[in-house]
Amino acid sequence: MPRNLESPSDDPSLANPLQRHERMSTGWFGVIMEYEGVVVEPSDETHRQAWLQVADEFGYKRPLGQLLRRIKGVRDEVVVSRVFGWTHNPSVARQVAQRKGELFEQLMGGRQPAAMLEARPFLETLKRNSIPVALATPLPEAKVREALQRHNLLSYFDSIVTAEDSGSAEVEFYYAFAASKLQRPPMRCVVIGESNTTVEAAHELGMKCVVAANNSPVWDFSNADLVVKALSALSFMNMKRLFAEESLVESRIGGEEVGRAPEEEPIDDFDDDFYGATDNDDGHLPAMRGGAFSSRW
């Protein structure tokens, strides 16, 4: 068995060299997608109105716009207790969250969010390239599955992580659990979302993050690894490039900490036109850490 790790995603315990090579290629990764704003159209304004109404009903202080921008991807009862700080009583938090859900459905008036036009072609691309896909959402599983079936999208997802799967208040739990269901290490997962909460949670786990800005300014997402206006601008090559500069590491004897190997050649498993692809050709805007085009709302 070789002593050296060829890349952070390498697994020397694999006896099959072809399996090891597959793990090290830039095409070996999993995708974790958010639900609202990525797979189906967002209902941000309706959620906002529901929160304001439930605050008035229970006599709580109305949340400010800044707080409302922080709740994406967070379960409603967690929003009540930890984000808004309305109550620290779990039973009361569940009651308030349930009422907010009822108000949301009333405000929707029986309407259901339409599927994003770019979602199906993007999922087809992932399926064609054998990339496993998970859906991560704080919404109830029954509601999400019903919507996916209605839009004929359920078969594209290898795993669905919903409110029933999470006993944690943290968004990171959904992504970590989704990665385990996809059988991919966090460093080989790409989270696709539409807010800065997604970016922060993904990076906390060592995952890559792509933001579909939709109608938001791209410069609002300065910390994302990649920002696109819509999923239609996100190609398979774009995602492979996220792993092109994966640091090489070398194993040490005697249980010492794993460190970086000095200037080894990167693994050459890219397509012939890999380096020929340009940002303008793919129609996406690269998000550079600390630059003008990277973060979430």
UniProtKB/TrEMBL annotation:
Pfam families: HAD_2 (PF13419)
Domain of life according to the entry: Eukaryota
InterPro entries from the UniProt entry: HAD-like_sf, HAD_2, HAD_sf, PGP-like_dom2
Gene3D superfamilies associated with the record: HAD superfamily/HAD-like (3.40.50.1000), Putative phosphatase, domain 2 (1.10.150.240)
Regions annotated as coiled coil: none
PANTHER family cross-referenced by the UniProt entry: 5-AMINO-6-(5-PHOSPHO-D-RIBITYLAMINO)URACIL PHOSPHATASE, CHLOROPLASTIC (PTHR47108:SF1)
Protein name: Uncharacterized protein
Source organism: Edaphochlamys debaryana
Taxonomic lineage: Eukaryota, Viridiplantae, Chlorophyta, core chlorophytes, Chlorophyceae
